[in-house]
Amino acid sequence: MHLYNNMSKQHKGKGLRDLLWKAARATNDYMFDKHMLELKKLSKKCYDWLIEKPRSQWSRSGFRTTCQSDMFVNNHCEVFNNSIGEFRDLPIISLLQGIHKAVMRRIQSRRDKMIASYQLNPICPNAMRKVNNGGCIVQWSGNTKYLVTVCDGGHEIVVDLEAKTCACRKYDLNGLPCYHACACIRWKNLNMSAFIHKAYHKDMFLKTYEHTVEPINSEQYWEKTPFPPPLPPLLKVQPGRPKKKRNKRNDIPPDSTTDALKVRRVGGKLHCKYCKLEGHNARTCPAKFKENEAQTRVHEGQIAQTGAQAEKAQECTQGSTTDPIYAGPSPSQTSHAENPRMKIVKKGATHSATQGGIFQTFTQAPRVTNTPLGIQPQSQTKDGKYVTSMRNLENARNERKAALQKPGWKI
């Protein structure tokens, strides 16, 4: 597991990962060499990096047969660490007391569970679940050895029931009959428990848990000593949220059906939905930018053309009215719908504001002609209509009223 984490930093890929775990699970030299050659075809650098590591530390084909175990992960430690996880944040004395009670309950519960099932089968239940015969054809040689032909693949393997060995080395490693040995035992109608190593017998399990953890009194009943009690260490609060659990993301290899086939953004190719090309998305599409620029130039040309037409129309109608305040054609002569300047506002026009000591340069908005009372609009709505404020209307009304009250303006 840790070897895979180190290898994945330099050599990535689902094929390399699968072949690594196949080579790690191989129990004999033939299967190990087969998977390593396949890995070499995929990546020569990964093969050279992996072949330098001692095979006895990560592959079952290099394990010794004295321990009767083929485990190459630290699941036992992880189970114990998970059981004491609730006591990690406690002080040292409370931590030890919590672990003491947890271990005492664990030993007693396991021993009682095994005693209750002892009469059913002298072999541990987990060991019996691993025993199976598979699909094999058995030929007896006349003594303790058998020739087993595997239906899946057709290869032949020699099994010795008296020595409890098999050419695949699974029987030798963990002490449980492999499916080749199970086929021979079933073919001879022998008792399966007689060919299982004694480490998997319930008697050995009960012997392991025959000791007990003695209970102890609480600190109120401890023996008093003339020495001063020890003081707790100084507490220094670390920044951030306290970390309760360690990161287990790299402990277990990802599932081949979920994480390994998951499409990630890193290293992938972008596809544009606008131009249907690779290498960019719709937000950064150059073709889209070019089209937008072309539309902007066309729009600016239309604005310039309509502005020139409006100025020409204003020159033609200038001086045709006797009202000195309202210069231009009357509303009855030219409506808002006929005047194109009432529909278009120059792009980028803003209102000037210099409050707070901030001085900025603003573009003056174009003057709109043929407006009621000669009032310039303040803003434009989404529907294309021009609106103004009540204050502007009131000021314009007062100015027009004062102009009409002057003596020289009577008609």
From TrEMBL:
InterPro entries: Znf_CCHC_sf, Znf_PMZ, Znf_SWIM. Residues 228-260, 303-338 are annotated as: Disordered. Transmembrane segments: none annotated. One of its GO terms (molecular function) is nucleic acid binding. Pfam families: SWIM. Residues 155-189 form the SWIM-type domain. Keywords: Metal-binding, Zinc, Zinc-finger. PROSITE patterns: ZF_SWIM (PS50966). This is SWIM-type domain-containing protein. It comes from Daucus carota subsp. sativus.
